[in-house]
Amino acid sequence: MTGCQRRRASVSRAFMLPHLLCLMCFAVISLAENTEMVNVVTERKAEESHRQDSANLLIFIMLLTLTILTIWLFKHRRFRFLHETGLAMIYGLFVGIILRFGVHFPQDLNDVTLTCAMNSSPTTVLVNVSGRFYEYSLKGEVRDSKGHDVPNAEMLRKVTFDPEVFFNILLPPIIFHAGYSLKRRHFFRNLGSILSYAFVGTLTSCFVTGLVMYGCVVFMKVIGQLGGDFFFTDCLFFGAIVSATDPVTVLAIFNELKVDVDLYALMFGESVLNDAVAIILSSSIVAYQPEGDNRHTFDGSALLKSLGVFLGVFSGSFAMGAATGVMTALVTKFTKLRDFPLLETALFFLMSWSTFLLAEACSFTGVVAVLFCGITQAHYTYNNLSAESKSRSKQLFELLDFLAENFIFSYMGLTLFSFQHHVFNPFFIIGAFLAIFLGRAANIYPLSFLLNLGRKNKIASNFQHVMMFSGLRGAMTFALSIRDTATYARQLMFSTTLLIVFFTVWVCGGGTTPMLSLIVGVDTDQDNSVSSTHVTAPDGMTQRNTKHESAWPFRLWYTFDHNYLKPFLTHSGPPLTSTLPACCGPIARCLTSSQAYENAGQLHDEDTELILNDGSSLMYSDMTVSTDAHGMPTSQAGLYSLAGTSDDPLDREIVFGGTRLVLPTDEPPDPLTSFPPPPPSPPLSDPLRHRV
Amino acid sequence: MTGCQRRRASVSRAFMLPHLLCLMCFAVISLAENTEMVNVVTERKAEESHRQDSANLLIFIMLLTLTILTIWLFKHRRFRFLHETGLAMIYGLFVGIILRFGVHFPQDLNDVTLTCAMNSSPTTVLVNVSGRFYEYSLKGEVRDSKGHDVPNAEMLRKVTFDPEVFFNILLPPIIFHAGYSLKRRHFFRNLGSILSYAFVGTLTSCFVTGLVMYGCVVFMKVIGQLGGDFFFTDCLFFGAIVSATDPVTVLAIFNELKVDVDLYALMFGESVLNDAVAIILSSSIVAYQPEGDNRHTFDGSALLKSLGVFLGVFSGSFAMGAATGVMTALVTKFTKLRDFPLLETALFFLMSWSTFLLAEACSFTGVVAVLFCGITQAHYTYNNLSAESKSRSKQLFELLDFLAENFIFSYMGLTLFSFQHHVFNPFFIIGAFLAIFLGRAANIYPLSFLLNLGRKNKIASNFQHVMMFSGLRGAMTFALSIRDTATYARQLMFSTTLLIVFFTVWVCGGGTTPMLSLIVGVDTDQDNSVSSTHVTAPDGMTQRNTKHESAWPFRLWYTFDHNYLKPFLTHSGPPLTSTLPACCGPIARCLTSSQAYENAGQLHDEDTELILNDGSSLMYSDMTVSTDAHGMPTSQAGLYSLAGTSDDPLDREIVFGGTRLVLPTDEPPDPLTSFPPPPPSPPLSDPLRHRV
After folding, report:
1. Region (Disordered) spans which residues (chains A, B) (predicted)?
2. A347 — contact with chain B (CB < 8 Å)?
């Protein structure tokens, strides 16, 4: 028994609060047991720790409550120069200052630890205390304290969450909600551009930022400002985490600027998808481990392996998410769960959550899987839900998103003072700001130029500036950077990232929005009026204009989705009996629900109503004229009745619905003019008969 | 360094899953760090453990999904002999059997532990592994394995949750929802009887059960069947935990039996409140620790201390819950949060949660505080919410309740096979069934007799039988018994409790309901028709009948609540300007919102609509004729307009509302005939003018 020495632990990654965040601390146990004195003392300690933990969590709840009240006040007074997330950050900052400088907590015995020497680190340790065995579980590696001069070190450590909390509890609802509230119609029409920005753009941004940072780091080394190792992979990692832009703040900005919905979808879709790209990119960079002694040289096979990890994890997570979404759609379609909204919502929630677990259990990325699950659920399952479940599920995820979002931002503010291993380096910070600026520019401008070559609805240069400046860094960047703060390089990154988030949210998110709407607004509006008149002209027949906008792989997908997937998975869309070849008749009839014939048009319409967060009154409203059409469905129904005889399933659908006449942007572009028409429907199952 | 020996840990209380229930396991950390081989191994292990944890949690999610689908099938086919909680238990049972006997998991290195000797048990241990320090945290005491013969011991341990999860995560939403959906109008009118059953009854039941069990234990000792210590305090503890009846199953049973709403409120109110009594009672019994060597003798001062703990914790928790509820009411009244339902719901949710944390931080009982918070929120705050927030908050808590409830019950089924320290003793089991029967009888029959002496709306003997048999044991009993399973006595209790829950839910909750409705149903209906005709007679003036039903302390409370608290905390009720003395005029005007004048009657009406879980279509509907009155508010409004000149604020309110004419049971009984009338309202603030 050599090394039992008392020392105070200063843990680089703190993990006290998580236990209580979900409040599962190991409290008042074995109370009535035949206890000895030593047991009672342990219980007292555990109880004390539980009390302390509850109090800490209470601080956060109070912070959130305060934030909510202030948000209300701001909205009430129409005072909009600061986004609510910025507000949450400010409150967090204040609490951080108070905790650090204002309060003094006595150090208690809880924090005294014992050391004993061993020669490996198992996950569980049994400690023999005068004949009684106690189990201890591994928490992580502890490094030498740098915070001995900080007065409330222990207390500050306690209010710091386990970073995994962000990944496993707070991010999933945010990301799911982003996917679920994606403006799908416009999202799918601009899929090509969105994917370009999200993949090519984020990769470019990551590498440009990484290169600039590498230059900066080399410069710092030369002038002796670098306090530890900082490798090229670290630079790339930094590039990956600061390339993720935040979708929530994009929403807020686009409330102000009345830009074209397509451009809006572009921007929102990009910021949603680049989160997924950034998270997988960063783990691929981490997975880059060349063989041999020097682990920071170039190694082709390791690079290929990283690339493999990127592709494998991305496609795996995508498949998981889509599969769960499809399964939920099938379950909600073929059972009559809609009669019991509570059961339906519960099922919807559980299935969506199981995506996350499934992906994590298979070593994929749960957060990414949840994103694609959200998109799939919105595209298919949503159509099958009862009206009450629709609003229930939207409201539930809206609330979860709101709480998680504000929690993360107020926590960010708090961290600036409560985190004890900050490394602020002015050179690195200046370099980083330059790098993210260049990285974002290298993402937006060249890509927009290339995309404009193929796009009919051009991305105007003013809008490119908006995209450039509204690339706020938010929850994802923070979560990625706090995930590991063990080394010098990571601490430097974390502190710098925090400043970047503060700056972009307060300056870009707050002050720039009114400014941009003043300067760019007029131009954007003009641009918008030009682009939107040809898209959303009141003449119903102009919808054909949009069909050339997408490249053929996407158009192929639309056709397939509209003719086969939607009818198969939902009650909406044209009945499968009319889209599948005649030989599949029995199967088609089996898979098509009776509602599909009746609801074909109507449900499609509901579908388009799931646009953004329609729970909030301040949100950017849809610019199509669909609501006008709703007002007079009967008067125009006859106008196009001749179209019912056409072979075009889309035209026919317009007649059925009766409400979709002037919805030119309502549907994926009609594939008929550029593609062979789908096989004509067998006359026996003509849906027109079902209507009469 | 003496005692580093390898051994397999078998932990009496397992705690692996909690970490991942909320998924905060210590996964892939410090990946890009300058890692050594030992680090990589630790990470692999942690990652592996994270994967395993996700998979385990997935099992539960799948179980819940399956349960939901089956519940739907049962509801769809109108197949009701088994309550949904019983279903969840059956599925859990199957999964438990499969995990125990069907699957074989290889033992991995994760489970190997090291032992080193020390002379105290700190909460944190630092382990020095070849120069690197790893932190370990205390998990609890480990006792010698009894499960070496169980094949998948480690895996089974992993699917076992930390009992604190039940108390800190799963119970609060269930209990809050019970409080929030309490049928308040009828609850408050029967407050006296409900409190008698909940306090006197539960105490009686606890002591009777304890005494019977003590007899049983003594008998077992004599015949040599007792395998360990079992003291009288253990018997009392057992009595306390099995005295908590489950409110959820009560709801289901009362769907079938069309009994009087008052009697229903009695039953539901009792089962909600006795949960609170049982939880505090059990911790008071645990707190009974006589001084001296023999800790199981009688000691007057220790008994007094226990009594003090009981009263202190109960009143403290009550005060916390009520205070938070009142604060939320004030915030929602005096801000215009209603314009932003999302913010309002978030605030509501956070404030309710903070009650739990506040109570825990002050060493009170969070679960009990949450119950009273729920009741207060429903009674006051609910009136201030916007229509959307009303439905949002109801739906949110309904969903949380549903998920938590079914999780607990399916977990119960699983535990029967996954828990490794079961002690089944036929003598003890038979004794326990006898004891709970006698305990429940000693609660219901004598008390009902005494209460009937004072009650106008008698509790019929048939109904007493129903109360006797519908005392199902559920989530609370289970959570209390699993909280500590370290000693022989507690393991014996836990196993027996599990059987009691199974029996009561399946037999009493399932089969007995149709039986009871056949046998008792007719009588109950007659009884009901008698009791309800005099209460809900169509003549509006018969409402005066109900005023004598309650004892004076409760009537005093109604008057105070109706005249001062409701107007102060909500927009409803008579304006304070009319109830407060004239000298308080300025304050009264300041505290009375303009809506109070306008909405006085209407909001009251909404208030009464929060009855039971109105989300479910199967629920027991209100039996008053309020809906009829809604249909023709104008035709009858004039009928009673002469009452507007009366000094009685209640009568006047009837005229204002216009919809509450024939709502005799809508209001607390009019206090005027037995009490001095409240001061007449100053004529300048006569609310009638505001209406015109």
Report:
1. 661-692
2. yes
